[in-house]
């Protein structure tokens, strides 16, 4: 019986190491845990493992949800999920990389949204959107540059005299063509 218990203990430790290193998935870890639960002599081992296992389960769930949200274009929600991952999770570094990816995508989304608002002469709405985004990510140079674009476009729009055509804001793709 002791030999069987030791074998199950070794299997549980091996499964834990593999799950921690993201080699096996949750269902395989749960199977190893369920087998170990059948041995009363392993109660202490299981009790010691349970808090770490619960934390890692939550971290991996946050990672998976973050990936789904990122793929769906829900960047802020994805960032929240990745941010809730445990630093002890081997996928934590990947999660922080995904946070950067989501931030960049979010900034590009804001640039596109504010560009659309400016094309409708909704400069105040565009400025509000970019400033809101800057409160979330104050170091985002993309957003800071877009704020300047909005400010200059609004200034050009409001400075046109009565009866004078308002200056048309062209997309940033035309910046390299000074004749426009």
3D structure, described in words:
It is rod-shaped, with a radius of gyration of 26 Å. The N and C termini lie far apart (85 Å). The chain has helices spanning 2-20, 26-37, 43-71, 75-83, 92-119, 123-136, 141-159. Mean pLDDT is 90; it is low at 168-180. It is mostly helical and 180 residues long. The protein has seven helices and no strands.
Topology overview:
Layout: H1 2-20, H2 26-37, H3 43-71, H4 75-83, H5 92-119, H6 123-136, H7 141-159
Helix pairs in contact: 1-2, 3-4, 3-5, 4-5, 5-6, 5-7, 6-7
Q: What is the C-alpha radius of gyration, as a whole number of Å?
A: 26 Å
Oligomer: single chain
Average pLDDT, all residues = 90
Percent helix: over 70%
How would you sum up the global shape?
A: rod-shaped
Can I get a quick summary?
By secondary structure, this protein is mainly α. It contains seven helices and no strands. 22% of the residues are buried.
What descriptive keywords fit this protein?
180 residues, mainly alpha, rod-shaped
């Amino acid at each position: 019986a002791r030999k069987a218990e030791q074998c199950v203990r070794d299997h549980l430790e091996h499964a834990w190491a593999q799950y921690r290193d993201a080699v096996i998935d949750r269902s395989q870890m749960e199977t190893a845990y369920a087998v170990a639960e059948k041995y009363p002599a392993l109660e202490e081992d299981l009790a010691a493992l349970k808090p770490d296992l619960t934390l890692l389960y939550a971290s991996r769930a946050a990672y998976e949800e973050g990936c789904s949200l990122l793929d769906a274009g829900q960047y802020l929600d994805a960032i929240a999920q990745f941010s809730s991952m445990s630093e002890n999770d081997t996928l934590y570094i990947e999660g922080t990389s995904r946070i950067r990816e989501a931030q960049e995508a979010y900034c590009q989304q804001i640039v596109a949204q504010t560009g659309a608002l400016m094309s409708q002469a909704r400069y105040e709405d565009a400025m509000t959107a970019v400033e809101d985004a800057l409160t979330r990510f104050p170091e985002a140079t993309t957003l800071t540059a877009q704020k300047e674009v909005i400010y200059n476009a609004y200034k050009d729009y409001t400075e046109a005299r009565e009866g004078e055509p308002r200056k048309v804001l062209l997309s940033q793709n035309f910046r390299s063509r000074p004749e426009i």
